[in-house]
Amino acid sequence: MFCPNCGEKLENPNQKFCSSCGSEIQTTLAPELSQAPQIPTEETQAPKPAPQVPIYEEKPVKPKGIGSNSKMCFAFALISLAFFAVGLGFGVGVIARLFIPVYFIPYLPGGPGLWFIAFILHVIGFIFGIISRVNGSKASKREAENALQKVGSVFSVFGIVLNVIPLVIIPIASVLSYIPYYDPFM
After folding, report:
1. How many structural domains does the chain have?
2. How far apart are CA 158 and CA 166, in angstroms?
């Protein structure tokens, strides 16, 4: 007789366990099993597929409170508006010099130097407005929604628009200021 599990020859027909593999031997074996040894076949079973679990994108946990991007958004928006105000002061001084005669207010500054200073101030204010908008978009992605970021974003849009308007007007006005005009009363 042979072991039905490993095919090893059994020494005693009344043996209850195989001496080679240790499997239990039934006392009544089928005639074909008792006569021919069975060759063990190793079946490679494919692993069972893992159950399909829906995978969701992990959303980053936004910390509560006001973050650094919100603070920078607001600060840069205020700086942009401040550069607009200072640049506007220089621009108004130049325009006032064009319309107010020198003998009326002799100490009012004017000239192309102030046009240039006003233009540079508005360029810097425009750049700070753009930086503020960039920090505002980073804050909306990375930080919890807060009022400082919203106010900073609105102020940055005002800073950008208010600084672009003089950037268009100053070159036109500076060219027009050098065009001689006809004075009928002279």
Report:
1. 1
2. 13
What is the pTM assigned to this prediction?
0.57
Domain of residue 108 covers 68-177
Residue 39, domain member (yes or no)? no
pLDDT 10s digits, 49-103: 767 766 666 666 666 778 888 899 999 999 999 999 999 888 777 666 666 665 6
What is the per-residue pLDDT across 120-174, written as a single tens digit (0 to 9) for each?
999 999 999 999 999 998 988 888 888 888 999 999 999 999 999 988 988 887 7
Domain assignment present for 18? no
Residues 6+ apart with CB under 8 A from 9: 1, 2, 3, 37
